[in-house]
Amino acid sequence: MTERFSNYQVTPSFKNSLEGMVAWYKRNFEKLPDQKHLKPEGVRPPIRYCTLQPYSTYIVKRYPSDSYDYDGDLRSNQEYAVMVDGDNPVPVAVMHLEPYGNHKQLVSFKGDIISGEIKLVLGGNETDPISLLSQNATSENITAALEKLPSIGRNNVAVTVYPGRWLIEFIGDLAGQSFEPFVVDRPEAAVFETHVLETRWNDSRRVEKLHYPIPLIGEWDGDDDAINDAVAAGSFGTANWFPGVGYMSNLNECRDFNGDGTPEL
To answer: So which domain of life are we looking at (predicted)?
Structure first.
């Protein structure tokens, strides 16, 4: 007999093990304020962040057919969890709110295969082709392409590259001005989507380590070299500061996955 738990069909024993892990985390974090040996670290404000790498605490796997444990009990098709990253902290880029700052746009990519070249169009003028290969899609290369547009020019735009997202800020002579959203010119054969929106959040140029307070379960897809991580790189979230522990996530954006081990960004 199985029961649906956290979007997976799991056996009662596996469900109990997950609930035990959650209970362990709760017990330990509730004790933190009483630990006298911790040095006071002051109060830090909550942060909004963008994850810089994918993360899962565990992945769910399934025993093959006709498999048995050491006691000879049948385990065919039973699910079990395998630790991947443990509870290691994850690097995140800290963002800050700029409600009255410069005009900023966020270009996001989503799809099975994000490759090839695109052009960004502003005011009827388009950039030279911009490669989407990770080693080429750098802030320097994207900035150089945008600065060639007659409506932008040199030193008037700043670009931050997150996994699957580009944050574009209008600065210099264009500071304080408003612009229409960029139009993305994609190849007709492209299998990915692009989304452009105005944002009031900017990159603080600061990286922090982040903990997730409960185990996050990814899904094994049959290849030990590729899993569908519970948290995709390039996702947004918020976190609070806990003395003696550090920043702990209290909200993380859910992302879709492709089924081939790579997250849709």
So the answer is: Bacteria
Phi and psi angles of residue 139, each rounded to the nearest 5 degrees, phi first? -60, -35
Q: What is the pLDDT of residue 71?
A: 74
Cα(106)–Cα(225) distance, integer angstroms: 31
pLDDT tier at 241, thresholds 50, 70, 90? very high
DSSP string, the chain: --EEETTEEE-HHHHHHHHHHHHHHHHHHHHGGG-TTSPP------EEEEESS-B-SEEEEEPPTT-B-TT--B-TT-EEEEESSTT--EEEEEEEE-TTS--EEEEEEEES---SEEEEEETTEEPSPEE-STTT--HHHHHHHHHTSTTT-TTSEEEEEETTEEEEEE-GGGTT---PPPEEE--TT--EEEEEEE-SEEEEEEEEEEE-SS--EEEEEEETTEEE-SB-TT-EEEEEEETTTEEEEEEE----B-SSSSB--
Distances (CA, A) of 34 to 30, 38, 261: 8, 9, 42
Q: Give the residue with greater pLDDT, 261 vs 229.
A: 229
Q: What is the pTM of this model?
A: 0.75
Q: What is the distance, to the nearest Å, from the Cα of residue 232 to the centroid of all Cα atoms in its chain? A: 4
Q: Where in the chain are the domains? A: 3-93+205-252, 100-199
